[in-house]
Design a protein that fits this description.
- The complex is a heterodimer of chains A (117) and B (111).
- By secondary structure, chain A is mainly beta.
- Chain A has no helices and 11 strands.
- In chain A, the strands form 2 sheets. In chain A, strands 2, 4, 5, 6, 9, 10 and 11 form a 7-stranded mixed β-sheet that branches. Chain A has a 4-stranded antiparallel β-sheet with strand order 1-3-8-7, with no helix packed on it.
- Chain A starts with a strand and ends with a strand.
- The model of chain A has no long low-confidence stretch (mean pLDDT 96).
- In chain B, strands 2, 4, 5, 8, 9 and 10 form a 6-stranded mixed β-sheet that branches. In chain B, strands 1-3-7-6 form a 4-stranded antiparallel β-sheet, with no helix packed on it.
- The mean pLDDT of chain B is 96.
- The chains are: A mainly beta (117), B mainly beta (111).
- Chains A and B meet through strand 5 and strand 10 of A and strand 4, strand 8 and strand 9 of B.
């Protein structure tokens, strides 16, 4: 079945870095754009970044631009999010999601990132 | 740039019908598709409506979506409410400048 599994979350100090991964299965990963979406504790959903199916274009929310980098390895069916210069306000559950039309159709279960000293 | 505004919470009894609204602040609601996501406590979101009014396979036909250009809003209607429908619901749309936008979410209580 179609599945997205995130990993790589954890606790990191302010100013630190972390790389998240999202392993895809059950669909032709190399044919679809992919997103990262986050949700701070007790808050709503916030779109973070998008990458086209072939990695040719990438878009970021203003809140992470210049600090986060989205990438993918189609040979490994894996999506990544490199997060640098982390701040307390980046604390959230991070979800990867498959692109569909103007939104998202399949979501992973999420991985928690906590930025704290 | 635009925002999507949803009521913070709604409540209704089992078996009844509830409508959750999502109002676009500027630009036409019809200019890009609206999606709706359900998020049960402690779980990831799932898609219940895509492209304004389409249901993914496996979503019961008790869930329906619509848009209304006169009020510049989208609506999610859930009929025959069940206790399992209790969740947070988010609308979402797209804009070429600010990209993918979510509403603030509506907490549905089925009491």
């Amino acid at each position: 079945q179609v599945q997205l599994v995130e990993s790589g979350g954890g606790v990191v100090q302010p100013g630190g870095s972390l790389r998240l991964s999202c392993a895809a299965s059950g669909f032709m990963f190399s044919s679809y754009g992919m997103h990262w979406v986050r949700q701070a504790p007790g808050k709503g959903l916030e779109w973070v970044a998008f990458i086209r199916y072939d990695g040719s274009n990438k878009y970021y929310a203003d809140s992470v631009k210049g600090r986060f980098t989205i990438s993918r390895d189609n040979s490994k069916n894996t999506l990544y999010l490199q997060m640098n210069s982390l701040r307390a306000e980046d604390t959230a559950v991070y979800y990867c999601a498959k692109f569909a039309s103007d939104g998202f159709d399949i979501w992973g279960q999420g991985t928690m990132v906590t930025v704290s000293s | 740039n635009f925002m999507l505004t949803q009521p913070h919470s709604v409540s209704e009894s089992p078996g009844k019908t509830v409508i959750i609204s999502c109002t676009r602040s500027s630009g036409s609601i019809a200019s890009n598709y609206v999606q709706w996501y359900q998020q049960r406590p402690g779980s990831a979101p799932t898609t219940v409506i895509y492209e304004d009014n389409q249901r993914p396979s496996g979503v019961p036909d008790r869930f329906s979506g619509s848009i209304d250009s006169s009020s510049n809003s989208a609506s999610l209607t859930i009929s025959g409410l069940k206790t399992e429908d209790e969740a947070d619901y988010y609308c979402q749309s797209y804009d070429s400048s600010i990209h993918w936008v979510f509403g603030g979410g509506t907490k549905l209580t089925v009491l």
